[in-house]
Amino acid sequence: MRKFVRSICLASALSLLAGCQTAYYSAMEQVGIHKRDILVDRVEDARESQEDAQEQFRDALEQFRSVVSFDGGELDTLYNRLQGEYDDSVAAAEDVSARIRKVEQVSEDLFEEWEDELTKYSNRKLRDQSAAKLRTTKARYAELLRSLKKAEKRMPPVLSALQDNVLYLKHNLNARAVGSLKSEYRGIKSNIDLLIRDMEKAIADSDRFIKQMEQG
């Protein structure tokens, strides 16, 4: 019985969300902004979140380098700064993922609408041209999404490694602990370098997709 009630609640929630999204699209269309435009805007937002995340992960790496280069002073201060950079990195990663989900949502809605509208053509030539354009747009979007997802998948391992080292430092605030972390730096740097590289590609692919969409 409880499983049935949960299913009803979930269905109701999804229906409500769908209704809100439909209302949002309708309101935007009334001012001349269509799903295609919203997709471009959300890709731009995703690109900006990747740029911000790149900078944040660089800052976190620099702070970690400061910790392993510790040579006297207040170790508590270095720990607090590293903890702050880790927290900011988690927030940046969450923002990247949230932006990607928004891109996925509007792209799915756009392509579904486009497919449905193809059935409404009476002119076969125009329908075929529109169908060809849809296929091209889908292919370009698929390439973009692969880049976004690849960069996104790089973040959890980096965050996990940073968290491990932050916790270790917290539990062992001494020079010996810092010495133990030195061997971790190279691996974290390598993973962050790969993450930044993949984000650079995602940013470039975002720029290319935006340009293609704006050119029509």
The helix count comes to 5
How many domains would you count in the coordinates? 2
User: Which percent range describes the beta-strand content?
Assistant: under 5%
* Overall pLDDT level: 90
Pfam family, one: DUF2959
Keywords: Coiled coil, Signal
Signal peptide: 1-18
Protein name: DNA repair protein
Description:
The protein has 216 residues and is mostly helical. The chain folds into two domains: 1-32; 34-215, Four Helix Bundle (Hemerythrin (Met), subunit A). Helix content is 91%, strand content 0%. The chain has five helices and no strands. Helix 2 runs antiparallel to helix 3, helix 3 packs antiparallel against helix 4 (124-171) and helix 4 (124-171) runs antiparallel to helix 5. The protein is elongated. Residues 1-14 have low confidence and may be disordered.
Brief summary of the model shown:
The chain is mostly helical. Helices cover 91% and strands 0% of the residues.
Keywords:
216 residues; mainly alpha; Four Helix Bundle (Hemerythrin (Met), subunit A); 2 domains; disordered N terminus
Provide the fold topology.
Blueprint: H1 2-30, H2 35-68, H3 75-118, H4 124-171, H5 175-215
